[in-house]
């Protein structure tokens, strides 16, 4: 390593790891182990760990417990979740959106959905699970629950906009409460999103309300943590 008067040793190591292993690599490719990096750069374990921590803080790599350290994909920052549809949102950001429907069933509302939609025990809801993609790559896994009457008691047409079908039934979502939680993906979730087991994700929980204040939609979406940031503007 060529020392720099402005760089500490771990910063030099971080720069070299970025140049040699991150920039040329495809997303989700594994990095050498900590021990290998120690030998490659002839530095201590602490120096390697501090270098990796700096790269992780910069969003260039991510660590999966028990698996290793991987090159992070380029993120697609987006503003706080809005009431635009996924298709409209992706198109506005210059991406090619696509949704793959995994399941569509009329089920008994789970307890959390009963609470969100103010339903009695045993009430039925339409559950739709979809894999959301941008430019052919999976970025989100969505599980949505709707009041059946939001689709005029007819099974929704999955090839058409759900928002448009709801509006046609008189149930347009005008406001929503949104909760964002950091989480780690299970084996099944990680497999569907194409990332390692335990990878970081953002869980976005949304309850949508009509103009009359009727809760009509309860949706949980898992966004890949290596692909999405949420930017939130706040004002005094």
UniProtKB/TrEMBL annotation:
The keyword DNA-binding applies. It holds the Pfam family GntR. The keyword Transcription applies. Residues 7-74 form the HTH gntR-type domain. One of its GO terms (biological process) is negative regulation of DNA-templated transcription. Keywords: DNA-binding, Transcription, Transcription regulation. It comes from the Bacteria. One of its GO terms (molecular function) is DNA-binding transcription factor activity. InterPro entries: Bact_HTH_transcr_reg, Chorismate_lyase_/UTRA_dom_sf, Tscrpt_reg_HTH_GntR, UTRA, WH-like_DNA-bd_sf, WH_DNA-bd_sf. SMART domains: HTH_GNTR, UTRA. This is GntR family transcriptional regulator. It comes from Candidatus Rothia avicola.
